[in-house]
């Protein structure tokens, strides 16, 4: 009978073609494909790790995380920025795949990040659609910029590409709406979010795809996750300006646009914004505070499965 060895944390550095693994002081590599991942899982089972730590790498980690989670392992997908900050804090400046895998072990042991919930097939599909939508918009913006400075002989070619991209954007929007409409959980949350003045179709879809934690975290946690929680900048008697940093840029961008609208059309956010201005707050500072308040309200609405109310702040 094979003896089982207990290992607390495993680190995996993921690249396009390879998985660099660090376990209990041992390092090895597997191919980042089904064969390599299954071989890795077979080696991992007798070790019974308590936690596997993987950096988010733009989707390259998706296959190994999915298969590990389906096999019952606790997997934490962590923000690369947090890992680099941790590396600097312990004076580790070298960067190779092997070093990164070992660093993830140390990060996991010190920080003990929570395991990441495996997204459903519908959640993965919505994320893929929203990612592709962003890519098409970026390409469309590039072609518009090209058109401004293009030689007249090239303008027809650019316009054809732009028309194709615009048509693709229409099709993607249709697929996104169709997926949300045919997924009960998405539909319920979408209806709740869009009941709030300031939240439109695109904002709701991005919140559903890029912030699945909405409604499952507390106010401080959700604000920190998005990157709208103020951080102190004090030293001795000096009291520096509070700043926001980190978080999820895509969510923060769409929340900013929604809050701009809400300061005009949402009575709660409108009142709060002008109250802050009357107190002498800078417009930018007031707007960030409104972003945080709006996010906290939306989080409470989804948590309680209740649409917008005249005085929704009581939910938060």
From TrEMBL:
Superkingdom of this protein's organism: Bacteria
Domain Transposase IS116/IS110/IS902 C-terminal: start-end pairs: 191-274
Entry's Gene Ontology BP terms: DNA transposition
Residue ranges of coiled coil: 155-182
Protein name: Transposase
InterPro entries in UniProt: Transp_IS110-like_N (IPR002525), Transpos_IS110 (IPR047650), Transposase_20 (IPR003346)
Domain Transposase IS110-like N-terminal: 10-149
Species, as recorded: Longilinea arvoryzae
Keywords, ordered alphabetically: Coiled coil
Annotated GO MF terms: DNA binding; transposase activity
NCBIfam families in the record: transpos_IS110 (NF033542)
């Amino acid at each position: 009978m094979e003896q089982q060895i207990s290992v607390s944390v495993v680190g995996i550095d993921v690249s396009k073609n390879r998985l660099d693994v660090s376990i209990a002081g041992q390092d090895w590599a597997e191919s980042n494909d089904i064969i390599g991942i299954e071989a890795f899982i077979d080696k991992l089972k007798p070790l019974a790790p308590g936690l596997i730590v993987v950096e988010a790498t733009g989707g390259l980690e998706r296959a190994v995380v999915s298969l590990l989670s389906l096999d019952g392992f606790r997997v934490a997908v962590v923000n690369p920025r947090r890992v680099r900050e941790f590396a600097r804090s312990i004076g580790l400046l070298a960067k190779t795949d092997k070093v990164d895998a070992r660093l993830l072990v140390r990060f996991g042991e010190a920080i003990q990040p929570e395991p990441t919930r495996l997204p459903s097939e519908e959640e993965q599909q919505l994320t893929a659609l929203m990612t592709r939508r962003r890519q098409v918009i970026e390409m469309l913006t590039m072609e518009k910029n090209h058109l401004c400075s293009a030689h007249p002989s090239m303008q027809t070619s650019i316009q054809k590409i732009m028309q194709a991209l615009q048509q693709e954007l229409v099709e993607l929007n249709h697929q996104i709406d169709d997926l949300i409409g045919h997924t009960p959980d998405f539909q319920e949350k979408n209806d709740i979010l869009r009941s709030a003045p300031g939240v439109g179709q695109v904002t709701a879809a991005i919140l559903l795809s890029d912030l699945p934690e909405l409604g499952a975290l507390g106010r401080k946690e959700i604000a920190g996750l998005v990157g709208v929680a103020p951080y102190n900048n004090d030293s001795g008697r000096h009291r520096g300006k509070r700043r926001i940093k980190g978080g999820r840029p895509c969510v923060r961008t769409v929340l900013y646009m929604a809050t701009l609208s809400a300061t005009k059309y949402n009575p709660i956010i409108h009142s709060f914004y002008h109250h802050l201005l009357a107190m002498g707050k800078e417009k930018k500072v007031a707007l960030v505070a409104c972003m945080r308040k709006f996010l906290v309200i939306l989080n409470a609405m989804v948590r309680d499965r209740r649409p917008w109310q005249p005085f929704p702040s009581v939910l938060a």
